[in-house]
Design a protein that fits this description.
The protein has no helices and 10 strands. The protein is mainly beta. Strands 1-3-4-6-7-8-9-10 form an 8-stranded antiparallel beta barrel.
């Protein structure tokens, strides 16, 4: 999982394409997420059967905490990002 990943998040308005740059040490994931609004730190990152982390992202409704739950399969990942208003599909490939 360590490295850069190009994500696609299908939001109700459009598809967002952030990039995550992560490091895994044991079962802890740290790193950053960069989108058109800038770069934010990933928090609460954990690696187990699934990869989970949080990132505070700017939206048209203000800054919201996105809770990511992803499954990694080789150089691809898939899963979901959850916010207060619902859940969005996430896919990604290693950069």
């Amino acid at each position: 999982m360590t490295g850069k990943w190009n994500l696609k998040i299908k939001t109700p308005m459009n598809t967002q394409t952030p990039v995550i740059d992560v490091v895994v040490e044991g079962d802890v994931l740290t790193g950053t997420l960069t989108d058109s609004n800038g770069t934010v730190a990933i928090t609460d990152g954990k690696v187990g059967d699934k990869v989970t982390f949080k990132a505070p992202l700017k939206t048209p409704f203000g800054v919201m905490d996105f809770d990511f739950t992803l499954e990694v399969n080789g150089d691809e990942l898939s899963g979901k990002a959850k916010i207060k208003m619902g859940t969005m599909a996430v896919t990604g490939v290693r950069a």
